[in-house]
Design brief:
three-stranded antiparallel β-sheet, alpha+beta, about 20% helix, single chain, about 30% strand
Length: about 180
């Protein structure tokens, strides 16, 4: 896990202003909320890329790409676009397309709980990017094991810092009680 701290203040990235769609008049409030969400999304991406144990899933439709975090670097920002790059993959994300961020507890592979952050475009009902926390029910060799509370705590710490900020929510898609 990398330990350096990355700043994401508006002063560092003053170009993070969401573009206004052609022919659409957005209210000042809508523009302000989108701008805040873009800054929070970048802040969160910076934090998530600090942990080289995360699994990154690009897309959410009929084609997705699952990627490990080996060699993941600090996100590179150009205007409202961010590049996330690791040793053997990279992706580009338009921060201005992120209209929702959700912390999710879900079921995967039949009965295994998993925990992730979802960056979405709610206007398009589209998953843009997901970042999965190390699964607390899998050991380092991905074999099922008893709950490892320290892995679950990482998700809880992120969730508790971000949920409630400018529309960021927690979603429990499992039948289990919330973590």
């Amino acid at each position: 896990m990398r330990s350096q701290s990355l700043g994401t203040s508006p002063d560092k990235h003053p170009s993070l202003a969401p573009p206004q769609p052609k022919g659409v008049q957005l209210s000042h409030t809508t523009r302000t909320l989108r701008s805040k969400l873009m800054h929070i999304a970048l802040e969160l991406l910076n934090e998530l890329t600090q942990d080289d144990r995360m699994l990154w899933v690009v897309g959410g439709g009929s084609v997705v790409s699952e990627n490990d975090s080996k060699g993941i670097k600090e996100p590179d920002v150009h205007g409202s676009n961010v590049t996330i790059e690791a040793d053997n993959w990279h992706c580009h994300l338009g921060l201005d397309t992120v209209t929702g961020i959700q912390f999710v507890q879900a079921i995967a592979h039949g009965d295994l709980l998993c925990y992730y952050v979802r960056f979405s475009n709610d206007d398009q009902e589209e998953t843009l990017l997901r970042s999965y926390f190390p699964n607390p029910y899998l050991d380092d060799d991905f074999n099922r094991t008893e709950l490892q509370p320290e892995k679950l705590q990482a998700f809880k710490d992120f969730r508790d810092r971000y949920v409630g900020r400018d529309g960021i929510v927690f979603v429990n898609l499992s039948a289990q009680p919330s973590a």
